Amino acid sequence: MENTVFKICGREEWAAASVAGEYLGNADDARDGFIHLSAADQVAGTLEKHYAGRTDLLLVAVDAEALGTALKWEPSRGGALFPHLYGPLPLASVTGVTEIGADQ
Questions:
Q1: How far apart are the first and last CA of the chain?
Q2: How far is CA 45 from the centre of its chain?
Q3: Rg of the chain over CA atoms, in angstroms?
């Protein structure tokens, strides 16, 4: 699959992860038992479906290979394969963080 996957999260969530040294996910991730990630071509749809109207968002780029076997590509929206991380997201696997808006 792809070498870079993405997590959309709020600034406060990411600030807490920066202190903790790992990102444990948001309430939806905790409910589902894995951290929801997106491939590059899925980011816009994820923003539209789950983050409409939010202005406090960051797009976190993650080296998929660094996640090892904890990263699984599983069917989700419309049968498309989405990357799901079973375990915490280590900050060492992050390759970039940028601001993103729901209109991007």
A1: 24
A2: 13
A3: 13
Token pair belonging to 46: 């994820």
Return the domain boundaries, the chain. Answer: 4-100
* Whether pLDDT at 24 is above 90: yes
> Rounded CA gap, 24 and 41, in Å?
24
Residue 1: predicted pLDDT: 57
For domain 4-100, give the fold.
ADP-ribosylation fold (3.20.170)
pLDDT above 80 for 77: no
How is residue 84 written in tokens? Answer: 């799901």
Asked if the model's pLDDT at residue 2 lies above 80, the reply is: no
Q: 23-28 contacts: CB < 8 A, separation 24 or more?
A: 23/60, 23/88, 23/89, 23/91, 24/88, 24/89, 25/88, 25/89
